[in-house]
Specification:
By secondary structure, this protein is mostly helical. It has two domains: about 70 residues, no CATH class; about 60 residues, no CATH class. Helices cover about 50% and strands about 5% of the residues.
């Protein structure tokens, strides 16, 4: 998450607090396998679970605004020799390239056996013997504009 403007707007518009949880029992609820069950005659909004209410109270507008301000300050401090946003973009691109490389290596390694691979290979691959090193050579040649 890099754009905090909507979160910041909501935090600024909310009651600034302090917020707290007084421990009052509102309605019966139980949690089973991660699902919260509330008595049907009560609305979900009337239900309180201590772990949730304590977190909500702690994640109040002042805390959210302080975190956003700290994030902005840290990002601004890193803009000198090191652009954090550019680095994050680069890591996302690198992750995509890594996935592509993994796909290629899987395809290349599966091409060792001369089987159905022939059916899905572009026409310019004809004549390649589909051993791993041959696939590498064909792709390298293609990247140089050749058609091996």
């Amino acid at each position: 998450m890099r754009d905090y403007s909507e979160l910041e707007r909501l935090a600024e518009a909310a009651t600034q607090g302090p917020w707290s949880y007084d421990g009052s029992y509102v309605c019966p609820a139980r949690v089973e396998d991660g699902t919260t069950y509330v008595e049907s005659w009560r609305s979900v909004a009337d239900c309180a679970q201590p772990e949730n209410t304590k977190f909500i109270a702690a994640a109040n507008p002042a805390a959210v605004l302080a975190l956003i301000a700290e994030n902005k300050r840290l990002r601004a401090g890193m803009k000198g020799d090191y652009d954090l946003d550019a680095w994050l973009d680069w890591t996302q691109e690198a992750d995509g390239l890594r996935k592509d490389a993994d796909r290629y290596q899987w395809l290349r390694d599966k091409s060792e056996a001369v089987h159905q691979f022939y059916l899905s290979v572009p026409l310019w691959f004809k004549g390649v013997r589909f051993r791993a090193q041959d696939v590498d050579k064909a792709i390298d040649a293609m990247s140089k504009g050749e058609q091996s």
